[in-house]
Structures are given as C-alpha cells and as structure tokens.
C-alpha cells in the first residue's frame, strides 16, 4: 500500500517534538501547521502539556526493546485516541480525506489520534522495526524509517556522514598523516 503523505508528516511532527521539545503554544501551532494540521483546531495551554506528554509516550514507543512492547504501547495510545473516522473535504478546498475527529476537538486530542493511526499504519505495513535512535553516539535523536529498504541507522545524512568521516579517520589516522604504502614502511619524503 502507498504511504500516506499526511501520515508521514504527522510522524515527522511527533518525532520532531520528541527530539526538540516545544517552547510554547506558538511553537506547537507553527510545527502543527507545517504538518498540515488546520490552524482552526482549538488549542490552549492544556494542549501544550498534553502534546509534551505525547512526545514522552512517543519516545517510549521508539525505545521499546521488543516488538511486543512497541505493539502494547501503540495499542494503549490507540485506545486513548478513540475517535470515529469520517470523510470530509473542508468546504471543497482540500479534497476528500479522512478525519479522526469531530469539529471543535482540541489540538492535543487530534494529534494523539492521528499519531496513533499513522504509526499503526506505518509500522504494520512497513515493519515494526521502522522506529529507532540515531546510531551516532552523541546524537541519539529518534527517527521514523521511511526508507525503501528499511535499514535506516541515522536520523539525518549529516549524522551518517559525520560517523563515516570518524570511522575513516580511525582507519587512516589523524588528518595530515599519509597512509602507509601497501607492502612496507613509509618512504622518506626528503
């Protein structure tokens, strides 16, 4: 099945909020808008606290040590997100799509429902291993693996490149030192 772009953005949003905690309600609004959540969804201080708690929950899902633990945590999140899906098209401007909320539901509740559904869909269709922490020791940011092969180890290419450079330098020595020639000692340079 084709990956749903909206769900992808929601999973990126919850992962971003997990990695970089929300500063305030305006920050929550900005990030939510980038993930295509309507600015008309009501939100207040209570939502900020609940979305921060959702980020903590997401971190536990990412860090689950077994598939069963991940499934149990995700099922608990799904149970809290009881909502009736419905088809809507926002006054003909967004095209027909699913909503997991009635009108007037607060942002934290909308986000919790959509994160739960998006994660369940992604993990059941792509594999339960598709969440992780960056392999770069000093980073360890959470990520959702959207790669074709499902073998992502780093949160970004920047971290992957940094680790590759480090491994290369560990093999060849510090910068400025030439590698030993094949088959013998270094030649004098004169």
Summarize the helices and strands and which ones pair or pack.
Blueprint: H1 5-19, H2 25-34, H3 45-62, H4 67-80, E1 86-88, E2 97-99, H5 107-126, E3 131-133, E4 142-144, H6 157-172
Antiparallel strand pairs: 1-2, 3-4
Helix pairs in contact: 1-3, 1-5, 3-4, 3-5, 4-5
Question: Mind explaining what this structure looks like?
Answer:
- The protein has 6 helices and 4 strands.
- Helices cover 49% and strands 6% of the residues.
- With 190 residues, it is mainly alpha-helical.
- The termini are far apart.
- The longest helix has 20 residues, at 107-126.
- The chain has a domain at 5-129: Jann2411-like fold (Orthogonal Bundle), CATH 1.10.3300.10.
Distinctive features:
190 residues; mainly alpha; Jann2411-like fold; two-stranded antiparallel sheet; 6% strand; elongated; disordered C terminus
Tally of contiguous helical segments: 6
CATH homologous superfamily assignment of the domain at 5-129: Jann2411-like domain
Radius of gyration: 22 Å
Query: What is the succession of H and E elements?
Result: HHHHEEHEEH
Protein name: CGNR zinc finger domain-containing protein
Domain Zinc finger CGNR: 130-171
Region (Disordered): 166-190
């Amino acid at each position: 099945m084709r990956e749903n772009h909206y769900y992808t953005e929601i999973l990126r949003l919850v992962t971003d909020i997990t990695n970089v905690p929300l500063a305030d309600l305006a920050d929550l609004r900005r990030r939510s808008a980038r993930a295509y959540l309507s600015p008309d969804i009501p939100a207040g201080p209570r939502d900020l606290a609940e979305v921060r708690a959702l980020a903590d929950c997401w971190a536990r899902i990412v860090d689950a040590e077994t598939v069963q633990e991940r499934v149990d945590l995700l099922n608990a999140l799904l149970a809290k997100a009881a909502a009736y899906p419905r088809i809507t098209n926002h006054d003909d401007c967004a095209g027909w799509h699913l909503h997991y909320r009635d009108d007037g539901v607060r942002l934290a509740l909308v986000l919790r429902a959509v994160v739960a559904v998006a994660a369940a869909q992604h993990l059941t269709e792509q594999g339960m291993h598709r969440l992780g922490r960056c392999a770069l020791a000093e980073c360890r940011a959470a990520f959702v693996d959207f790669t074709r092969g499902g073998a992502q180890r780093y949160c970004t290419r920047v971290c992957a490149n940094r680790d590759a450079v480090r491994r290369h330098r560990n093999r060849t020595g510090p910068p400025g030192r030439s590698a030993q020639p094949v088959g013998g000692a270094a030649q004098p340079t004169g």
